[in-house]
Amino acid sequence: MNERDSEAVAAMLRARGYRIVDSEHDCDVLLLNTCSVRDAAEQKAIGKAGHVAARHRKNPDFVLGILGCMAQNRGAELLDKLPDVDLIVGTQKFHQVPDYLDNLRAAREAGVPIAETIVDIGEEAGSQNTIRDHLDTEEKQVTAFVSIQQGCNMDCHFCIVPKTRGDERSRPMEDIVAECRQLAAKGVKEITLLGQIVTSYGRRDYVHTGGVSPFVQLIEKVHEIDGIERIRFTSPHPRGFKDDLVEAYGRLPKLCEYVHLPMQSGSDRILKAMNRPYSSARYKEIVDALRAVRPDMYFSTDIIVGFPGEAEEDFEQTRALFEACNYDMAYIFKYSIRSGTVAADLGDQIPDEVKEHRNQVLLDILRKNSERRNASLLGTVEEVLVEGPDKTGQRFTGRTRGNRVCIFDAHPRLVGQLVPLRIDRVSVSSLYGELVLSGVGETVDA
Ligand code: SAH
To answer: How far apart are CA 262 and CA 156, in angstroms?
Structure first.
C-alpha cells in the first residue's frame, strides 16, 4: 500500500513538471513515505531522515518531506527529533504534496529565510478517491496495484493502522473499474486490489446481490476487462471471507490461486485478546474450503508472535495451525508495542528472546514448506507473466499464478506476456527454468 501511495505521489509530481531521478543523491526534493506498524519501521525512518537532513547545509534548495503513517502518527512532534524537516504530510493528504512543494519553493524564492515546516495531518472526506494516478515508466508496466479503500474500522488490539489510516472508506466501484480499464489499455495484465480489509469493501455503499458481496461484485467487474489476465488482492479478513468469495475461486479463472489470509494467532484465547473476531477452527475451515475449490491453492499469512500473555501453549497452537495450513509464504512479526493501542497497556509483555525463538520456529517451518513446494514444481510447466529484467539485468523475472518468483532467459519483447516456463532448478525462494516457446510465437506480437 505504501508503494502504491508513493507511486501516486510521484505521478502527481511528474505531472507538475518534477523529474524522478534514479539516485537519492541527485535529488533536490526527497520524500520519505513511512510505516508505523512496528516501532522498528519508525526508528528506521527517523534514522534515515536525520541522516538526509544534513543535505540542507550543502543545498539551500533541498526539501525533505516525511509522508504517510509516521507523519500521521506523530505529526509536528517529529520536529523535536527532526527540526530540519520541511514537510510533514499524513495519509489522507498525499494529493496535496505538489501544492505544498510549490508553496515551499515560492516562500524560499520570496526570500523567507527559513520557510516554516508545513504540517498537514488532517482528515479529508473523499481522500480514498485521490490515490488513482499511475506513473508512466519507460519500461512497460505489466502489474499494477489499485487502491480500492482507505482506512480500517476494525479494532485489533495490537494495531496502529486505524489511527494512521483513519476510518474505512471505499472508492466507487465504477472509478476502480475505470482505473483498471486504463491500466489494461496500457498493457497491464495483472491487478492487485489493495485495502486494509478488502473483504469489507463497499459494505456501506452497495448491497449484496444474490448472496454476492460488493467485494466479489467488484472482482467480477474487473474480471470482465479484456486484457486483465490475473487478479489478486490484499488483505482480506477471515471474518469477511464468506462462501461467495470462496466460490468465486471456482468460477473466475483470472482470480489467481494465491490467497494472503492473515491468521495472527492459532490460539483462541490470544485471538480474543487481540480482538480478532474468529476462532482458529473457523480460520482452518476457510483454508480447507479454498483448497476444496482449488486444490492447487497457494497460501500466505501474517502472524504475530509474542503478543502480551502468549503462553507456551498458545504458541504451540499457533505452531500447529501454521503447520496444518501448509503456507507457501508468511510474514512473521514479533509483537511491537504501539502506544495508543489497547495491547500496549496489557501486562505480561513477552521477553524479546522468547519472541525471537518463536519467530525462528515458524521461519523454520516456512522454509521447509517453501522448499517442498518448489521441489514439487521441478519438471513442471508453469504459466509465468514476464515482468522485466531481473536484478542482474542479464536474465528476466516473472511470477507464476501462485506468486512464485521465476528467473529465466527471454527476449525483451516477451515482457508483459504470459508464457509457459519449464522449471528445471529451484531454490527456497525462486524457480529457474526455460521458456517453452513452441506454439507461443503466435501470441507474441513480433
Ligand atoms: N490490515 C492490513 C495490514 C495490517 S498491518 C492487513 O490485514 O494486512 C500488517 C501486519 O502487521 C498485520 O497483519 C500484523 O500481522 C502485523 N502487525 C500489526 N501491528 C503489529 C504490532 N503492533 N506488532 C507486530 N506486528 C504487527
So the answer is: 12
- Ligand 1: residue whose CA is nearest its atom 2: 196
The whole-angstrom separation of Cα 74 and Cα 174 is: 35
Nearest-Å Rg of the Cα atoms of the chain is: 23
Best residue among 153, 198, 304, 336 to mutate for probing ligand 1's pocket (most ligand atoms within 8 Å of CB) is 304
Per-residue confidence (pLDDT) for residue 112, from 0 to 100: 76
- Identify residue 399 by its one-letter amino acid code: R
Class of domain 127-376: alpha beta
Identify the residue whose C-alpha is closest to ligand 1 atom 1.
196
- Give the tens place of pLDDT for each residue, 379-400: 999 999 999 999 999 999 999 9
Low-confidence ranges of the chain (pLDDT < 70): 113-115, 439-446
CATH topology classification for 2-120: Rossmann fold (3.40.50)
Tell me how far the alpha carbon of residue 37 lies from the centroid of ligand 1, in angstroms.
6
**Structural domain boundaries in the chain:** 2-120, 127-376, 381-444
Tell me, in angstroms, the distance from the centre of ligand 1 to residue 270's CA: 15
3-state secondary structure of 382: strand
**Ligand 1 midpoint to CA 275 (Å):** 13
Whole-number Å distance between alpha carbons of 342 and 355: 20
CA atoms in the 13 A half-sphere facing the CB of 143? 22
Residue 1: CB within 6 Å of ligand 1?
no
Is 338 near ligand 1, meaning CB less than 6 Å away?
yes
